[in-house]
Design goal:
The protein is mostly helical. The protein has helices at residues 2-13, 19-33, 35-41, 46-67, 80-94, 102-123, 131-142, 147-159, 169-191, 197-216, 218-223, 231-236, 253-274, 286-304, 318-328. The two termini are 37 Å apart.
Length: 335
């Protein structure tokens, strides 16, 4: 991966980057990161698909920065003072220390500031050079993507720089809005719609998908010191936060009851999210429909396991993926 970014930096410095190359770069990020999203994008026309690639690449890289999996190769030393000030303010606002070492934490804050600076340049009509932002700027010229949603997404990702502490489902819902509903609201501006109610259902779509992600990624998140399950709801079912690292918890009555409660909430958001599909441009409905099918299958898998998401990661096997793909084309009943 590193060589790819170095190659792109060389092209940028020489002025060789074009909009077509930038979209190709974003598509490459998508292909290397998510088969589920890529599977759903193929039903879109090329212009919409390019815009979605740009959106996905933006979201992917912000997430990678926070997780420490990627950082810009550009010289960001001009942001050192601002990053330190921002870091201090964030720790004061959250009344918490960052979850990583101070040096790594400031490095990640600096990279997020760099992302925001590039958004500033796009908003002010200035030129951007990095391929990701070249593609994003072009997508925002072609579709009414709202800048505020991109900034809120970054704010939501910033929350993951700190130990997570979600006391209630409402707290979790707020987080899901920041990191997922904002994406849904941007995507429907690409897909196209006329009924304003589509925005409410797009918010619900993001919450549905992110709450499934919480279950799918629970082991990885625990390894990073992140707990998204609401603390007061766990305690309501007699579960302590400290028990989540014990895989024996999955077989207990308390956990199974909590999971039934959690999955019921997810399905409520899912039912509201599905109302979005008929409100979208008919040529773009299939893409989010495939995503819903994939995530619904992951949720069904959690139910079949009686809520055991602790001993083995949720995911789709190869055969199931093929069946879903064929089902989306009307060749096979994916259910």
């Amino acid at each position: 991966m590193t060589s790819v970014f170095l190659d792109w930096n060389s092209q940028i410095d020489s002025g060789a980057s074009t909009v077509e190359e930038a979209y190709s770069y974003c598509e490459q990020i998508t292909r290397e990161s998510s088969t589920s999203f890529l599977r759903s994008f193929r039903f879109l026309d090329q212009n919409r698909r390019n815009a979605v690639y740009a959106m996905y690449a933006f979201c992917r890289r912000v997430d990678d920065i926070v997780d420490g999996d990627w950082r810009p190769q550009s010289d960001l030393s001009h942001l050192d003072s601002l990053a330190e000030s921002r870091s201090i303010q964030m720790t004061v606002d959250r009344q918490s220390e960052a979850s990583s070492s101070p040096e790594l934490y400031i490095e990640r804050v600096r990279a997020l500031l760099w992302f925001n600076q590039n958004l500033d340049r796009i908003e002010e009509g200035q030129d951007v050079k990095e391929p990701l932002f070249v593609a994003l700027a072009d997508a925002m010229k072609n579709y009414p993507i709202q800048m505020t949603h991109l900034r809120t997404l970054i704010q939501g990702m910033e929350d993951d720089l700190f130990p997570t502490n979600y006391c209630s489902f409402e707290d979790l819902r707020t987080y899901c809005f920041k990191v997922a509903s904002t994406v849904g609201l941007c995507l429907i501006d690409i897909y196209g719609y006329s009924d304003p109610n589509a925005r409410e259902h797009a918010e619900e779509m993001g919450i549905f998908l992110q709450m499934v992600n919480v279950l799918r990624d629970i082991q990885e998140d625990l390894g990073r010191g992140r707990i998204y399950l609401p603390k007061d709801e766990l305690e309501r079912f007699g579960i302590e936060i400290s028990q989540l690292t014990d895989t024996n918890l999955a077989s207990t009555k308390e956990w199974k009851e909590f999971m039934r409660h959690y999955i019921h909430r997810v399905r409520t958001h899912r039912d509201n999210a599905l109302k979005l599909l008929p409100l979208l441009d008919s040529k773009a409905r299939r893409s989010p429909a495939v995503m819903c099918t994939v995530y619904d299958e992951i949720l069904l898998q959690a139910e079949r396991r009686q809520g055991d998401v602790l001993t083995k990661r949720l995911g789709l096997g190869f055969v199931k993926k093929i069946r879903i793909a064929l089902g989306s084309l009307g060749i096979w009943d994916s259910k």
